[in-house]
Amino acid sequence: MEEEPFRSQPPFPVKLFRSLSRRYQSLLDVSTPYVAGRWIFSLFLLLSYMARVIIAEGWYIVTYGLGIFYLNLFIQFLSPRDDPALADDDLDDGPGLPTSRDDEFRPFFRRLPEFKFWHSATKATLIAMFCTLFQALNIPVFWPILLVYFFTLFAITMKKQIKHMYKYKYLPWTRGKTRYGGRADTGRVVQPNEPEDGVVDQV
Q: How far apart (Å, rounded) are the C-alpha atoms in residues 176 and 174?
């Protein structure tokens, strides 16, 4: 029996979804090295959303949820991938954070990498902006209470995170850390009989 040709071909919606997924992934791959450009684009989206909320005077619940989601992403961005508080002292499962000055260097691996942080935050902003198209989500609420509660939650969460950083002696950024580099490449071609420092011995 001859096989029917249409059985080997996926349906059109599946083909369209796969094509869009590949196109979307390729755009993400291209944008990966442009850190500043990506965050400027996300900031522009956030400012556009805030302008929409302020002008329309609504969707404060959606904005509060967006702020809580941002805070959750930020805490994961500052946290190490392997929490030393959960590590068993009797088991050595792999490299962890150094606990003293004499310990060997161990790089800081974030629980949430920068690219995933940006991607999740940008998607959340777009979803929140999409929610402002529906009046049913514009639940009336006294927004100063939400604002005060958010800043209180932010202060408590950051205080807990700073205590965790101080207790286990780690920093989630590289500014201020010791950097070791080799000699700078000046691009000058060194002649065969010429020393590398460019100083010719006098006869």
A: 6
CA distance 165 to 78: 9
pLDDT in tens, 63-80: 999 999 999 999 999 888
Torsion sign (Cα): 13, 19, 25, 27: negative
> Which amino acid, residue 101?
R
* Tokens describing residue 165: 């950083």
Note the pTM of the prediction, 2 decimals. 0.70
Tell which residue, 37, 66, 187, 84, has the closest CA to residue 130.
66
Half-sphere exposure in the Cβ direction for 137 (13 Å, CA): 17
* Predicted pLDDT at 159: 93
